[in-house]
Amino acid sequence: MKRLIGVVILLGAAAVGAIAVTARGVPPLPSVEQVSARIADLEHGRYVATLGDCASCHTAPGGPAFAGGRALATPIGTVYSTNITPDRDTGIGGYDFAEFLRLMRHGVAPGGRWIYPAMPFTAYAKMSDDDLFDLFAYLQREVDPVRRLNQPPAIAWPLSWRAPLALWTKSFHHAQPFEDDPAQDAEWNRGAYLVQGPAHCGTCHTPRNWAMAESEEPGQFLSGTAFNGGSPINLRGNQGDGLARWSEQDVVDLLRTGRNAHSAVSGDMVEVVAASTQYFSDDDLRAIARYVKSLSPADEAGRGQFAASQASLDRIMQGKEQSSGGRIFMDSCAACHRLGGGGAALAFPGLAGNASVLSKDPSSLIAVILAGTSLPSTAKAPSPLAMPGFAWRYDDEEVAALATYLRSSWGNQASAVTASQVAKVRRHRQ
Amino acid sequence: MPIRNKPVDAVIVGFGWTGAIMAIELAEAGLEVLALERGDDAHTVPDWAYPKVVDEIAQSARNGLLQNLAKTTVTLRHSKDEVAVPYRQMGSFKPGQGVGGAGIHWSGVHSRVMPEELRLKSHVTERYGRKFIPAEMQLQDWGIDYDELEPHFDRFEQVCGTSGKAGNIKGVKHEGGNPFEAPRSNEYPLPPLTDPPTSRLFAKACVDLGYKPYPLPASNASRPYTNPYGCQLGPCNFCGFCSDYGCINYSKASPQTTILPALYRKPNFTLRTNAHVLRVNRDASGKQATGVTYIDAEGREVEQPAGIVVLAAFHLHNVRLMLSSKIGTPYDPVSGEGTVGRNFCYQLINSVNLFFDPDVMVNQFMGAGGVGQAIEEFNADNFDHGPLGFIGGGVIWGRQTGNGPVRGIPVPAGTPLWGSGWKKAVKENYLHSGRIESQLSNMAYRGCYLDLDPTYKDAYGEPLLRMTLNWQENDLLMSEYVGAKLMEIGHAMGAKSISGRLLKRGSSWDSRAYQSTHINGGTAMGSDPKTSVVNKYLQSWDVPNLFILGANVFAHGIGYNPTGLVGGLAYWAAANLRSRYLRNPGPMVPA
Q1: pLDDT 10s digits, A371-395
Q2: In the list A189, B149, B254, B326, which could disulfide-bond A180, CB 3.0-4.6 Å?
Q3: Torsion angle of alpha carbons A408, A409, A411, A412, nearest 10°?
Q4: Do B237 and A348 touch (CB under 8 A)?
């Protein structure tokens, strides 16, 4: 609801400013003479498409690759991804590179149509001209054209009015490519480029402001959020809910295989690993790990903390654990995650000190308890190890008790979970 | 007019352990591979998700994972002069069904074979003389040596993440392992599982009696494990639901946990479920398989052409397919001629429950299918058979596999079957009882065989396979001897009472009581086409592009559980198929 109000306010503000903005018009088509002199590297273009995970959103379930039609839920309604195959009538076959570059960098499609930021052009804007040129060449020349008309967004009037998008974009978007930080070395800068640009990690992991734009407050970038029924974790250097206890290799392992010694992916990240990050080059994964591990801790206020403790295990072994959450844990969770909460390396994620368990917003933890989860089958780690869901077995109170137990055992210290938080996630999944 | 599918390089009939092994090996060699499975697909989640799978009524009482006997079964009789009747309820043996096959509901005991068992006829003749072999016993060598198979046993253990302790690595003896073990190239991939109380009591009693107990090798993972395919196992939690159940924990090695995740990533592999194969088709010469015919999920007849046909179904179905496809000569017990159906064997088992004083805590609620201690002193030819007058032997173990109320809580002999007397006995004994067993080899005999039943047909109109089998004097003598050792150990463990089943002279095969699913033979391997169906590469003597896997290739029974040998033989066959047959298709051994 808050988000809806935010959007309505934005709409009101937009009504005032929109005419002026529109009068000023869309950004002109960029000059592409210099980059167009390049000989396109199609193999690199394919890799850039993988870095950007274009196919995931631009392919409908079971549909032809890049032909669009996948439903993407946004706070104001459902938008459908577009056809980016080179079909001339229904895809991007009629685009020239300048039009493509303007779309990726400014959020304006041919014909001057402002696009919804569900397409993360706010991140793609940071991509280099060369990468975008190769990506464009790949999409135009290597992807099979598919005739498939784009589906209009299912957004009710007046929110369906696009003019405010212009104001939103002008207000919150920086249409500048990434620039190296001269104080850092090449590896770090490559990592920063990938994370901020093509890999668009901030889309899910960075908190958003009142207008649904990624926060630019200091220390907020990648600091964890609540998004699409889950809670993408804090990727900054916090001790509890962040990655302070991860090594760079742990980051590499997670992105390569969906699992590492500490944790495992769940929710939307399963698909990200399966379709995108597992295929990143070793150098690129190392660069990402290097950059992410350099991020300072976010403001600790309200964040989960961790200081390993034997007390919970001792209580269980002495037969003293009588709480509802503890008993559910022993019955349904401990077989894999073990009584000490340590899990089993690479097979079953540990719960003690797990960033997702300690997350400020517990939505991902609740979602995994309710619906279960399955690891991606990757080339390096083919086993799609899965956890069954318990929504059918435990009601909101019980799931809340369990989640609270997990967030307060083995040295985990994070806020209690309420039944209404569980109910909200349960509704989202229905 | 049957539907005709696009040809594939290799079609694999049945998708349990051997089918999965052959499929991934041939897919890695670049072949277009199709597996046909008559049952359903199955995955750890949701099919064996906790808590739904640990349902003793659904799995142990109602056989959730087993073959549907209403569709197809076998008929049984003790001798060729009787009329066989159908096996209508699960009892003595439990064939699996569906993707993973019996590899889902097995216990996990994972042994190899003793070298002399692969050349038992030669070995017995050399040590005890030709006359030592009873007249009706069809003893024969397998045509293969332990040393040839060793790398493939090793491979299968690496794939399964077997937990154990080596007793003999490359000829060097290691304390704590099996002292009779044949040389291994490597230590077990994982250390042994922690011994539960029954196993500790067993081991101590064995030491007191002068035996050398060792940890039974178990494909229940003692630690997290990643196998050579990159597939992962999680550590066993001793929940006690192995045999009859799919593992909730990714701990028990199965095709699903150890092979299929890697195989399913290969674009040149296809799985088709609910495909019931009726027969292997051949060309006009009869010497080349052209594919198979199956009934699909909608009941349509489908012809599947293939360059190579691999029979990888359960023992019974492999033998039946050979008979109904009329490949080779069916065995005739009167003349002794023919090979298909010959040398049908079934492992014997002696199983007794021990009841201890109340101060001995066992708690049978916990356990794992393969966890335990074992002794080898009476297996194979580890002891002098000369004065004893029989051939064969077996392994004696104290396992603790988990026990629940529906599966049956053991109570001392003489306890009422129900009511307050039974309840009192359960209460007094549940935490203080354990089970020890000896599993025994079964030799091949002239009168024990498989053929097609003349009367009964299955749901597809095909004749049922007919089993003709009973225990023979040699094996019962052996069982009595090893059974006495078993009882000796039970008493040394301090049991105040012992009850259970010991097979003695006069015992007949009882198809109603569970014994084990370790039936074998029927398409024996060997070096002589007159007494075997496949050569040492598990290639049909009659149809060189037909390969037959499974325990049906055993020439006779062995003392150990069969899965380790079945898997090792499948890897052996696959390796030779890849390295030799694909380069030069044709008979790999001149007939």
Answers
A1: 999 999 999 999 999 999 999 999 9
A2: A189
A3: -40
A4: no
